[in-house]
Amino acid sequence: MKKLVVVLFVVFYSLAGFAQQANKIVGIWWNEEKTSKIKIEKKDGKYIGTIVYMIPEKYENGQPPKDKENPDEALRSRSLVGLQILSGLEYEADDKEWDDGTIYDPKSGKTYDCYVWLESDNLLKLKGYVAGIKWMGRSSEWYKTTLE
Description:
Layout: H1 2-22, E1 27-30, E2 36-43, E3 46-54, E4 84-92, E5 97-105, E6 110-120, E7 123-129, E8 138-145
Antiparallel strand pairs: 1-2, 1-8, 2-3, 3-4, 4-5, 5-6, 6-7, 7-8
């Protein structure tokens, strides 16, 4: 019985550490150009990212820019602020990265497969790619910040 308690304690402790590591990407991040802030959160067991702020210099006629490059004409009038650009990321403990996600690039209107990893607590690296070829993608760096 004593061994069972110890084993259960170790399993519980390991799971808590796993969840803690997986949630390290949760928070607010500047994009590489520092023009937008993206909020990463866990929803339905996967990590998503939503644009929550854009610098005023990007506004057009006092309004946040629209999703003009979206291939779906019906979506081109939607605001980029509030737009979910990251979806489906799952934490892979063995690789210490979040994988199997997608990232939408509002500049091109294209969606790419992606994975992300933490270079440090304040630096998130992302890589978007197509056709399953990870080494042939484009990388980006996001920087931890606050909403204010």
